[in-house]
């Protein structure tokens, strides 16, 4: 007989439901339900079970903590801000250049704030930003400034032109058809952004309505390219037998001379941007319907960041048709030319 069989049952209250249960089963129930003193046991987990539960919960918390710590250690810290740079600026930064012209897209207050913060020279203000002259250290600081989204080099611009009336079907437009009247460009003003226009030339002396010079000069063409382009656009027909066959594609159009190229035929992107914005602002005054850009520059960044392409888009949004030189270098660049020449034509042009 085991020890539990000797436990006295006298004095213990037996529930009515157990009075008909055999004594052995009744004794087992009472042993399970009461402690040795006869008190009713609390309904709580056994100590060993509670320890197991506590240990398992602690292990779970510890596992979560270890996994979280590993994840945080593996995840990179929040990357420091770096403004996007055009390819030429990245090259200047790597080379440690000491004189770099940088175009920034910002309002006047931000341009002034950045100039004061980094002791920068503002070479010129643009409607859409400004041009800084910086060294590599200042460029690196600008790139890390939260106020700067992207930066562009004030790249060199060069002239570009090649056109023939018959190759573009101009002769058919002049003649008209049963459905389309003959067109000559009459009533439309073309803003020629180039090296200037010789308004004393016989083919152009009655064509130029206004001149603006963004190089610091007086609008006179000392390189010759702008005059050639202007005559190709709107030159009057020659009077002599050997010149009578020559006239502009839109020989009835008027011209506005916006000089951005110097005596060597070179200029800067910022000058072209300023000229485009001038044409937008003065569109109504001179009935400017077309801007001509027979210019080229290297492609150094996506068009979304390129300030020159952004200026062209502004002109298109203002209702001006922008004609841009394209294709002079073919589908691929020559071997020595490491970057394709930019002759971008944005949507709507």
CATH architecture level-2 label of the largest domain: 3-Layer(aba) Sandwich
Largest sheet: 5 strands, mixed
**Tell me, what is the CATH class of the largest domain?**
Alpha Beta
Structural class: alpha/beta
The rough form would be described as: elongated
Give the radius of gyration: 42 Å
Find the CATH superfamily of the largest domain.
Answer: Peptidase S8/S53 domain
Helix content: 25-40%
Number of domains as seen in the coordinates? 2
CATH topology of the largest domain: Rossmann fold
Number of helices: 10
Task: Tally the beta strands.
Answer: 14
| Topology as a string of helices (H) and strands (E) | HHEHEHEEHEEHEEHEEHHEEHEE
